[in-house]
Amino acid sequence: MSIEHSSSFVAVLDIQSKNVSRKPNYSRFSQQELHAWQPILTPGWVIAIFTFIGLVFIPIGVASLFASEQVVEVPLRYDDQCLPSLYKDDAMTYIKGNRISKTCTKKLTVKSKMKAPIYVYYQLSNFYQNHRHYVKSRDHKQLRSKADENDVGKCFPEDYTANGYLPVVPCGLAAWSLFNDTYRFSNNNKDLVINKKNIAWKSDQKAKFGSDVYPKNFQTGSLIGGARLNESIPLSEQEDLIVWMRTAALPTFRKLYGKIEVDLEANDEITVVIENNYNTYQFGGTKSVILSTTTWIGGKNDFLGIAYILIGGLSLVYSLVFLLMYLMKPRPLGDPRYLTWNKNSKCLN
C-alpha cells in the first residue's frame, strides 16, 4: 500500500508541475516594451550643447565674481597678537591660568564703506569638527525633548556629572567644546551693539532643539571645555550653541557670532575688546574675528565664479574642437565601415 500511495503522489506532482506555468504575467514594463527616448548624440547636438553650456556658465561666473568683489571684509587674527610676550613660549600656561587676564584690545581699520547689516564671524583653523567621534558625541533625542534628558548613551565622556548620577544637558563633546571668546566693538568711543538674535537656522531651532529643554549640570566638571550656558533659557533660544553644533565640514571654518546693524564708513577705526578664552594653542589652531558684508551670493567666495568661468570656457573650447573635427574629417552617421571588426577584417584580407 505504501508503494502504491507514493507512486500516486508522484504522479499528482508531475501533473501539477506540467499545469503550472513559470511564465510571468505579461506587462509592457516586464517585457521592456514601454516607450523610451534614446537620444542620438550627433555632432551637431554635441557642439550645440557645449556651446550652450559655455554661453550660460561664463556670464553667471562673471556676475558671481563681480558680486564677490563687492563684499567688504575686515579680518583680524588675534590668537598670536593677544598672547602676552611673557607667555610666547608657554601658551598653555597663559590660556589655562585662571588668574591671568585674557582681555586684549586691538584696532581694525575699515577700508571701504560697509552697509548694514555687518556680520561678525569667528574663524577657527585646524579644528576638525567633522571627526567621526566628535560628530556623534551628542544625543538628538535629549536635545529635542525634556522627557529624554536621561538619554546620554552616545555622549561619553561628557554624559554624567563627576559622581556618575546626574545627566549633563546638553551632553557630548560638541556642546562641551562650545566657543567662548567674546568681542566688544566701539567706533569713535561709541559702543557698537552686536545683535545675536536670528543667527541660527530656524529649522534647527524648531526641529532639533526643544523649547522645554533647559541646560543642567553643564560645565560643572573639573575640566571646562568652553562656554557656559544660562540654565534659565531653553536650548531652542541658545543660538550660540545652535550655531556651534552645526558641525563644519572642513578644519578651517567660520561661524556667525552676531550682526552690527549700523553702517561703517571708510577709514573708520574700530576698537575691538577681545576676551581670549578659547584654547586653540593646544592643537596648533588659529583664531580670527571677521567683519563682513554680503551680496546676493552671500559672503566673499571667488571659487564659485572661477568654477563657472572655467567650466564655461572648457565647454566652448570643446565645442570649437568638435566643430573643427567635424568640418575637417566629416563622416556619415552610423556608417558600418568604421566599426572595429570591419576594419580588422579588411586588414586581414
Automatic annotation (TrEMBL):
Keywords, alphabetical: Membrane, Transmembrane, Transmembrane helix
Keyword Oxidoreductase in record: no
Transmembrane segments: 45-67, 306-328
InterPro entries: CDC50/LEM3_fam (IPR005045)
Highest taxon in the source lineage: Eukaryota
Subcellular location: Membrane
Xref: Pfam families: CDC50
Record-level GO cellular component terms: membrane
Family recorded in the similarity comment: Belongs to the CDC50/LEM3 family.
Protein name (record): ALA-interacting subunit
